[in-house]
Amino acid sequence: MIDSLVRKNILALTPYSCARDEFKGRAASVFLDANENPYNTPLNRYPDPLQEELKKKLATVKGVEPDQIFFGNGSDEAIDLVYRVFCEPRVDNVVAISPTYGMYGVCADINDVEYRAVPLNDDFTLDADRLLASVDGQTKVIWLCSPNNPTGNALARDQVERVLNEFQGIVVVDEAYSDFNDLRPFRMDLYRFPRLIVLNTFSKLWASAAIRLGMAFASPEIISLFNKVKYPYNVNLLTQEQAMKMLADLPHINLWRATLLKERTQLLPAIAELPICKAVYPTDANFFLARMTDADRIYHYLVDRGIIVRNRSRVELCGNCLRITIGTPQENNALLGALRRFGSL
Ligand SMILES: *Cc1c(COP(=O)(O)O)cnc(C)c1O
């Protein structure tokens, strides 16, 4: 049923079959099938191409089934795969909210697929009707990001569900930041929405951006298509092992979340009352957008003091806006102290 949305060459593709696929499931102790070096255990062996142990563990943590999980080299791999599986270059198009995460547009350009950016409302809320008005017969994918980067707000569930119900193609909801709020995550609704793909990542709350591990949650049909097209050993052994360690330490993750949310509660009003700040926008993530009197000058002033924030002032709807990540209490105090001194220059 998803097949009508898939590129013909991908439907017809015979995927690469690796040595480890063939023996799978049987006990063995002598491995002479993959031209590996027998020394330097365990790094001499190719890793599990489908990361089964990790999927089993993650499934319990995220409340999904193992066959609803895809792992990639960052969420960025899943984003690219959406284009490679569903979008015919120079024929199909995708629709996305604007402003949003830059990789959806970059991957569209790389894959030579038309990218239609539809502005959010001035308060960064989603108007499903406006988005759907940009859809035509060649639209294969709609990109949503909730909480949205760089604006920080979660999109209203009723608007997202309208998109899911009315659009007949693939809808991606990137929930890289969903761990920082108590809203119902969309991965819990995969059974209701068979064309939904939800993205998560180890790079944010899970504090593991360095290991490059992203996730897509979707129907087993969509996951199989991703598995068919991905590099055979796309997630290396060190990454799989480190992810298992992080998943075994939930109390630590929860402590980090509590600390960051408390800091967020304190930092937002403190920034908002600075004379150089015109507005702080509500956030459901571990960052927030602040509209300043002069974002460029304030940005360079902070850089000179060794404090780096993201200057988003040239992004649609974000004139004079800085995007600020919640750091440790010490880092947040350093930022606040520097911004308080800015006025007295
Ligand atoms: C940070 C971020 C990601 C994470 O990407 P990785 O490749 O997994 O590090 C994904 N989506 C959004 C919107 C982000 O802000």
Q: Give the distance, in angstroms, between the N- and C-terminal Cα atoms.
A: 64 Å
Task: Please identify the structural class as seen in this structure.
Answer: alpha/beta
Rg, alpha carbons = 22 Å
The helix content, as a percent range, equals 25-40%
Quantity of strands, as a count: 11
Overall geometry comes to globular
Could you outline the blueprint of secondary structure elements for this entry?
Elements: H1 8-11, H2 19-23, H3 52-62, E1 69-72, H4 75-86, E2 93-98, H5 103-110, E3 114-119, H6 128-132, E4 139-145, H7 157-166, E5 170-174, E6 196-201, E7 214-217, H8 220-229, H9 237-247, H10 250-272, E8 277-280, E9 287-292, H11 295-304, E10 310-311, E11 321-325, H12 329-342
Parallel strand pairs: 2-3, 2-4, 4-5, 5-6
Antiparallel strand pairs: 1-7, 6-7, 8-9, 9-11, 10-11
Helix pairs in contact: 3-9, 4-5, 10-12
The chain binds pyridoxal-5'-phosphate (PLP).
Pyridoxal-5'-phosphate is lined by residues 74-76, 101, 145, 149, 174, 176, 201, 203-204, 209, 214.
Give a written overview of the molecule.
β2, α5 and β3 (114-119) form a beta-alpha-beta unit. Helix content is 36%, strand content 16%. The chain is built from twelve helices and eleven strands. α10 runs parallel beside α12 (329-342). The protein has a seven-stranded mixed beta sheet, with helices on both faces. Strands 8-9-11-10 form a four-stranded antiparallel beta sheet, with helices on one face. With 345 residues, it is of the alpha/beta class. The mean pLDDT is 96. The relative contact order is 0.13. The protein is globular and about 70 Å long. Bound molecules: pyridoxal-5'-phosphate (PLP). Residues 74-76, 101, 145, 149, 174, 176, 201, 203-204, 209, 214 line the site of pyridoxal-5'-phosphate (PLP).
